[in-house]
Amino acid sequence: MKNIKLNRHRFIFAFTTVLVISIGALAIETIQAPQQDTKIVDDKKETTVQLPNVLPIDLDKERPPDVGASAQNTPTESEMTPAAEESIQRGLRYLASLQNDDGSFGRGQFAHHAGITALCGLAFMADGHLPGRGAYGDNVRKALDFVLRSPTETGLLASENSHGPMYGHGFATLFLGEIYGMNSEDARVRDTLTRAVDLIINSQNQEGGWRYNPVPYDADISVTICEVMALRSARNAGIKVPKETIDRAIAYVRSCQNSDGGFRYMSTTGTSLWPRTAAGVASLYYAGVYSDNSIDRGLNYLIDAVNPGGGGNASESHYFYGHYYAVQAMYLAGGKRWALWWPNIRDEMISKQSVNGGWMDYQAGQAYSTSMALIVLQMPKRYLPIFQK
Q: Are strands 39-43 and 46-50 parallel, antiparallel or unpaired?
């Protein structure tokens, strides 16, 4: 695999990533010739992707009614319980206590981390708190100020000690997109968000995906979902995202699916795992693919592999990362899948809460795992713009 060194005074790019949670279990597979289930053509110097049996993607187009409704506009009965609300409020109080003086979140090797800070900001926003508004409005404002101070000259949202910074960049861009979607008057946010989106677009590789560093060389499914979700949030908020970028991302995600419906780490032969499968399905939904055999097979794989609350054999490794995307995939699928999945993961997540109100991840730290758990538990509140469109 080809390593690219950029600006060595700022970054030391290493295999250890910003979010270890998504790397260990999504181990790099031996690189072989990629599967060719898409065709890339060059027409007058403009690269487009021809996708077989897929209608053209239009992010402005509403979800077709014939594919069924997602859970966005069809809440099920008793989605939120008193126990869930009590767990959320304990978690938010604990999360607020973890904020650093400079507005950031994260400790140890993940100290003052733009990506983790963004996730924590989203966890507060998922309860309806905005910069300067609500009980945790000041926490969101301080987190936003920190993220806005984070960009490098290239627009990369990363702290000086970040490794594999495109994870953090994707989460931070998503955070800014959600902020801007709720308040389009802040010029600081728009400028930083626009530059962050441009960096994502320009670092997409030839296959259509992204990887650890902001250079268009290789790609993996776990970084790709971070960037696709960030682009969708920005596009919802009115920031221009080229259709070609989304079409190529769809092509890449498709190339990572195995015959069992699960997704592998890269577009080469390899095993399926449930966290990367959750990422793959969510990527397709956020890219505007709503009715597709790839989605159905991926959702079925998730149900068989995880089955939260029902004796599934999902590994504890990358638990929060996997369920962060799995709950979104089932939410976007809606119908019976959401109705069966949600109460089980809700109660399972509550059962894992610590006495102090947080959730523990021994690799990435409690700010990361607590924010992820809170975002999962607050999906039915539907406050974040990306969960409304």
A: antiparallel
Residues 6+ apart with CB under 8 A from 34: 207, 255, 267, 268
Residue 80 and residue 377: Cα distance in Å, rounded?
A: 9
What whole-number distance in Å separates Cα of residue 183 and Cα of residue 174? 14
Helix (H, G, I), strand (E, B) or coil at 263: strand
Cα distance from N-terminal residue to C-terminal residue, the chain: 38
Burial 201-238 (b: 16+ CB within 10 A, else e): eebbbebbbbbbbbbbebbbbbbbbbbbbbbbbbbbbe
Range scoring the smallest mean pLDDT among 71-80, 140-149, 163-172, 232-241:
71-80
Q: Is residue 254 part of a domain?
A: yes
| Nearest of 107, 124, 106 to residue 116 by alpha carbon | 106
What is the CATH number for 166? 1.50.10.20
Q: Judge whether 279 lies within some domain.
A: yes
Q: What Cα–Cα distance (Å) separates residue 270 from each residue in 5, 145, 221, 287, 313?
A: 27, 41, 12, 24, 20
- pLDDT of 274 higher than 50: yes
| 3-class secondary structure, 319 | helix
Segment of 109-113, 156-160, 164-168, 375-379 carrying the highest mean pLDDT = 375-379
* Residues 80 and 88: beta-carbon distance below 8 Å: no
d(CA 286, CA 174): 12
Between helix 293-305 and helix 319-333 the angle, nearest 10°, is: 130
Nearest to 101 by CA among 133, 134, 139, 131: 139
Phi and psi (nearest 5°) for 326? -65, -40
Helix axes 366-377, 319-333, angle to 10 degrees: 20
Q: Does residue 330 belong to any structural domain of this protein?
A: yes
CA distance 163 to 200: 17
Number of domains in the chain: 1
CA neighbor of 37 nearest in space, from 207, 210, 205, 204: 207
* Structural domain containing residue 123: 20-387
Question: Is the sign of the CA dihedral 326, 328, 334, 339 positive or negative?
Answer: positive
What are the C-alpha distances in Å from 167 to residues 22, 36, 206?
A: 9, 26, 19
